[in-house]
Design a protein that fits this description.
By secondary structure, this protein is α+β, with helices and mostly antiparallel strands. The protein is built from three helices and twelve strands. Strand 3 and strand 4 form a beta hairpin. It is globular, with a radius of gyration of 16 Å. The relative contact order is 0.18.
């Protein structure tokens, strides 16, 4: 494990058996080392797609200079492989249904008392499915600006673009794990949290 620009690098891609209900802190950074979002949740388990975390309504979600209270329950999926982190919402009144952050350097580290932290570097592009706007790719302008200002390597730019196109197709086609039928089993597990 080493530190680069303020964030940890070379963290293991997989955690070592978190317990059901363990506190999980999802911590995102920007490529230049600036702190980004910090989102707490509780571990539900894993499947072929990745690790599932419940983020309950009322949780404090924060980043430097702003914070808000989560308006509804959500599931966070940290994939076993790939360059993304997904948040799947559970409220028809919430405009977002699926929100996927394109990301790199996804890695886990254990914290005290059985808690875990999963770190990632947010790379601006987002694949979103919203009730009002359908499925779309967001923040392409921010990606273009930051890739120049923060010197994203060309290989990273190309791989993130490919990943975003693949995810856009999967979400638009309502494939698992992004559809409601699939997430229902994890919402049922979340209902059993203490």
């Amino acid at each position: 494990m080493s530190v680069q620009l303020g964030y940890l690098t070379d963290l293991p891609r997989e955690p070592d058996n978190p317990e059901f209900g363990a506190l999980i802190v999802a911590r995102a950074w920007k490529y230049n080392g600036a702190s980004h979002w910090v989102v707490p949740g509780f571990y539900l388990g894993q499947d072929e797609f990745g690790h599932w975390i419940h983020q309950p309504a009322g949780s404090l979600i924060a980043r430097p200079s702003t914070a808000h209270i989560a308006p509804c329950d959500a599931l966070c999926l940290i994939p076993h492989e790939g360059q993304w982190v997904a948040t799947l919402y559970n409220d028809e009144a919430e405009d977002f249904d699926v929100y996927i952050d394109l990301a790199s350097n996804i890695g886990w580290q254990q914290m005290k008392r059985g808690a875990w932290e999963v770190n990632s570097i947010d790379l601006d592009l987002d694949v979103i499915r919203s009730h009002s706007q359908g499925t779309f790719l967001d923040d392409e302008d921010e990606f273009a600006v930051h890739s120049g200002e923060m010197n994203y390597p060309q290989e990273l730019i190309d791989s993130i673009r490919r990943e975003s196109e693949r995810l856009l197709t999967q979400v638009a086609a309502d494939h698992a794990p992004f559809n409601h039928a699939y997430r229902a089993q994890w919402l049922a597990k979340a209902a059993r949290l203490p």
